[in-house]
Amino acid sequence: MRVTNGMIRNNMVNSLYTNMSRLDTLYNQMNSLKKIQRPSDDPIIAGRSLKLRINVLEAEQYKSNTDEATSWMEITEKALGNVTEILKQINTRCVQASTDTLATEDREKIEAEINQLWEQLQQEANVTYAGRCVFSGYKTDEPPVLTKETTLTQPTELESDLILLKGTKVSADVLDGGGTVLIAAGTTLTEDITIPAGATLPTNTVLPKGTINPNVLGKIDEQNIQYEVGVGSTISVNTLGMDRLMSKLFADIKEIKDGLESHSDSDTSNDVNLHDLFEGKIGDFADRLLDVSTMTADLGSRVNRLEYTATRLVDDKTNFTELLSKTEDVDLEEVYVEFNSQYAVYQSALQATSKVIMNTLADFLR
Amino acid sequence: MAFFEFNIAVSGLFASQRGLSVTSNNITNATTQGYSRQVLNQKADQPLSGIGVGMMGTGVSTTGVIRMRDSYLDTKLWSQNDKLGEYRIKVEQNSIIETVYGEPSDTGFTKVFNDLFNGIDNLSKLPDEKERQVALRQQMINYTKYFNNISASLSGFQRDLNFELKSKVDEINLLGSRIQNLNSQIYQAEIYGDDANSFRDQRELCVDRLSQLINVQTKEEEVEIDGKKFKQFTVKIAGQNLVDHLQVREMGIEVRKDADKLNPQDVDGLYDVVWKDGLPFDMSDSNMSGEIKGVIDMRDGCGTEAEVKYNGIPYYIKRMDDYVRKFATAMNEEYSKDSDGYVALENAAGDLFFRKADTSGKMIYYSEDAGGNKVALPSQPSEEEALTTYQPKYQLFTYTNGSSAGIPEKIPNLRDEYALMTAGNFSISWDIFDDAANIRTNYEHYPESNTNPNKNNNDLLLALSAQKDNKKMYKEGDPKDYMTSIFSELGINTQEANMYLKTQTSITNNIENQRLAVSQVDTNEEFSNLIKYQQAYQAAAKLINTIDDIYQTTIFRLGNF
To answer: Which residue in A222, B81, B169, B389 is deepest, having the highest Cβ count within 10 Å?
Structure first.
C-alpha cells in the first residue's frame, strides 16, 4: 500500500488523541479521587454509589436522632431518680411519725418538711428538655402540675378525679357527668374539693398554682413520642404515668397534711388515728415507689435499646462509608502508577511523532 | 524529413514542462482539503512508417492530467459517515444531560432528597419549633427547585437542539446547491472529454460533509445525448432526491403547531423539516441517520412508546414529570390522613369527602354528617370517576401559578392524576408557602382551624418520613430506586453512544486512510517526480543542443558558403 507522510501524520494525531484522552481520565481520577465523574463512566457504580451515599446520610441522621433521644431520656432518668429519693425521704418521715409520739413542734416540722418535699416533687414532674415538659406526653407545652395561676381557655372534661385547691375561682356551674351541679357559678373555693372524673370545668375557671393540670391528667396515656432510629424503626423517648402518679401523691400528701392539721386540736384521742394514718401511708408510698421503679425500669430498657441502636448506627455508618469508598474511590497507588506509565507512553509518542514528520526528501536535495 | 529530430526533442521539452506543472500543482495543493493528487499521462506519438526503415517514433505526447481517486472508497466512506455524525451528536447531548443531574456528587439529587427527609425528621423531634418548621419549608423549596432547574435546563437544551436542526437543514441546502453548481461545471468541462479533476474533488468534499449530516446515496450515470456520452450525478438523502444532475431540491422548516406536538413535554415552536416543494419529509423514518437524525432523536425522542423511540430530552423531562407527580401523590395522600386512616378529599366545589380502604383493600368513599360521623356514599364512584372528582384536601406539594416569581397556585387542581403538575412547575403548596406553621405535624392537627391539641405529637411526620422507603411509590421501587434507574439508564445510553462513536470513528478513519493511500499528495513522491521531470527537461534540452550542433555542421561547414 502506498503510504503518504500525510497518512502518518493523521495516524500520529489520532493516537495522540487516544493517549491524551486516557491521560485525561486518569488525571481526573487523581484529581477527584473518584473512579467515575459521570454516570456514563460506569452506570452500575453510579447507581450503587448514589444508594450508598443516601445510606451514609441516613445513618448520620438516625445517629443524631439517637443523640437527641439520649439527652431526653437522660433528663427523664435523672428526674425519676430524684423522685425516688424524695419519696424515700417522705417515707422516712412517715416512719418516724408513726413510731414517735408527736409533739406540736414535731408535727409542724414534719408538715413543713413534707411541704418542701412536695415542692421538689412538682419540680421534678415538670422537668423540661429544650423547653418541653418531658412527662406531658404530646402536650409538652403543659406542665403536669400548674406552675402559675392558670385560667382555662376552653371547657375541660376531667378524665380522672381532680383535687381543686382552695382559691379556685369558678365562673360557671361545674357539672358532673350526669349534669348535677357540683360547684355553683361564681364560687371561690375556701377549701380543697375533689371533683370526680367525668365532670367538666367550664371556661375561665381560674386554677391556682400547684393544681394538677386537668389538661394533662389521665389524657396522655398513649402519647408516646416516637423518634426514628432506623428504617421503619422508632423508639419512644418519653415516659408516661407521671401525671397519675402526681395526682395520687398529691392526694396522699393532702391526707397527711389534713391529718396533721386536724390533730392540732388538743384532743389526744386523735393520736392513734395519726399513727394509723402514717402506718397506712407507709404502705401507700411503697406502692408509689413501685410505680416509679416500674417507670424507671421501662425507661432503662429503652435506654439500653437506644445505646445498642446507637452503636449499631455508628457501625452502619462506618460500613456504608467504607462500601461507598470501595465503590467509587480510586486506589491512589494504582492510578498513580497507571498515570505514570500512560505519561511515559505519551512522551514516547510525542518523540516518535516529532522524528517521523521532521524530514522529507527535500532535506536531502541539493 | 528536415528538422524532424527538433520536433521530437521539442515534444519532450513540452511533456516534461507539463510534468513540472502537474508536480508543482500537487506540491502546492498538498494540504488542500479534498484534493486528489494528479498525474500526467503521456504516451509515445504515432510512429511514422513507410520510410523504409520500419516504424519510426515521432516523440511524446501528453494525453491527460488524471486525478488518482477510487470512487469505491468514497461510497464506502459515505455509507459510514452518517452513523459517525449521528453518534457524535448523541454523545455530546447525552453528556450535557448527565451534567444537569449533578450525579454522582454531594450536590445533586442525593443532597436535596436527604435534606428534605432530614427536615421532616428533625421537625418530628420537636414538631412545634418554629425554626424547624421554617427549615423544613426551605428544604421542601430546595427540593422542588432541583426539579424545576432540571426541567428548565432540559427544555433549554431542547430549544438549542431545535436551532441546531435549523442550521443543519441550512447546511444541507447549501451543500445541495454547491453540488448542483459543481455538477453543471463538471458537465461543461467534460463536454470536451476532459476530466474535471478539481471540480470533482470539490464535489466529493461536499458529499463528504453531506454524508455526515444525513445518510446519502449517490449515483453517477452515463447518458448518451447526440452520440456523446455525459455523466450525470445524483444525490439522494434519506432515500429522496436532493440533487438530480442540474436540479436541486430545497429543504425548509415549519413551526410545529401546538396541537401537533409530538410529546406533551415539548417546548413551543419546535421545527418540522419539510421539502419546500411540498413533498413530505418523514422525520421519524427509522432508516434515516446522520447528524440530523441525532438532533431529531435527542430533541423529540421520548422512549420506546413514543413516535421517536430514542431516549432523548423529552424522555428525561417525562421521567422527571412522572417522578414529581407520583411523589406528590403519595406525600399528599399521606399528608391528608386523619388518625383513623381516612384520607380527607375535596371535590371541585370544595366539599369534604373521605376515602379509606376496607378490609379487602377496596377503596370506600365517605362524606361526613352533621355529627362528624363518616357515612359511606350511597353510590360509590368508580376508580376513574374518583380520580377526576377528588383531590387530597391537604397538600405538601402542588405547582406554581405560572408567575415568574414562582408563587404556588392558591387553588390547585390535582385531579386527573396531577396532570397539571410538571417537574417545571413543581412547588410547595400555597398554605406552606404562606406560613411554615401550616405544616401538619400530626393527624389531629388542622392548620385551617388552628386545632392542634397535641402539639408535640409527630405521628403524621413519621408517616411522611416513612414514604422515603415506600417501595410501592413507583414501579421501579422507592424514590431513590426511581432516580437511580434514570441515572443508570442515562449512563448506559451515553456509554452506548460513546461506544458506537468510537467504533464508527475507527471505521471511518480506516476508510479515510485507504482513500488517502490512493489520493493524497506525498511530498517525497512529488520531489522525486520533480527531479524526474527536471532531468527529462534537461535531457530534451540537451537533445536540441546536440541536434543544433549537427545542423551547424551540416549547413555551415559542409556548404562552404
So the answer is: B81
Classify residue A239 by its DSSP letter. -
* Chain centroid to CA B226: 48
- Interface predicted TM-score (ipTM): 0.82
Which amino acid is present at A41?
D
Proportion of chain A above pLDDT 70, given as a percent: 96
For residue B529, CA distances in Å to A326, B27, B41, B289, B523 come to 63, 10, 13, 43, 10
Its sign, for the CA torsion B134, B138, B144, B145, is positive
Single-letter code of the amino acid located at B477 = G
Q: In this complex, is the C-beta atom of B138 within 8 Å of any C-beta atom belonging to chain A?
A: no
Nearest to B74 by CA among B227, B265, B218: B218
Residue type at B325 in one-letter notation: R
- B403 — pLDDT class (breaks 50, 70, 90): confident
Please report which residue ranges of B191-271 form alpha helices under DSSP H.
Answer: 197-213
Nearest CA in chain A to B523: A360
Query: What interhelical angle do B479-519 and A43-99 show, nearest 10?
Result: 160
Encode pLDDT of B135-162 as tens digits. 999 999 999 999 999 999 999 999 999 9
The verdict on B99 touching A (C-beta cutoff 8 Å) is yes
Q: How far is CA B495 from the centre of its chain?
A: 15
Q: Identify any residues that bridge with B244 across adjacent strands, giving them in sequence order.
A: B234, B247
Report d(CA B496, CA B490) in Å as an integer. Answer: 10
d(CA B342, CA B365): 9
Q: Is the peptide bond before A214 cis (omega within 30 degrees of 0)?
A: no
- Residue A20, Cα to own-chain centre: how many angstroms? 56
Contact (CB, 8 A) for A230 and A192: no
Tell me which chain A residues have a C-beta less than 8 angstroms from the C-beta of B32.
none
- Chain B hits for A130, Cβ within 8 Å: 126
- Which residues 112-151 of A are in CB contact (within 8 Å) with B? 130, 132, 137-141
Beta strands in chain A (DSSP E): 128-129, 132-133, 150-151, 156-157, 162-164, 174-175, 181-183, 193-195, 200-201, 206-207, 226-230, 233-236
Shortest Cα distance from B488 to chain A (angstroms)?
A: 5
| CA–CA dist B414, B405 (Å, integer) | 21
- Which positions in chain A touch B487 (Cβ < 8 Å)? 39, 43, 46-47, 50
B contacts of A328 (beta carbons < 8 Å):
104
**What is the nearest CA distance from B325 to chain A, expressed in angstroms?**
22
User: Cell numbers at residue B39, please?
Assistant: 498525474
How far apart are the C-alpha atoms of A244 and B429, rounded to whole Å?
42
What is the Cα–Cα distance from A182 to A199, expressed in whole angstroms?
9
pLDDT at B405: 75
- Given the C-alpha cell 423514518, which residue does it identify? B285
Residue A9: closest CA among chain B residues belongs to which residue?
A: B513
H/E element, B223? strand B216-225
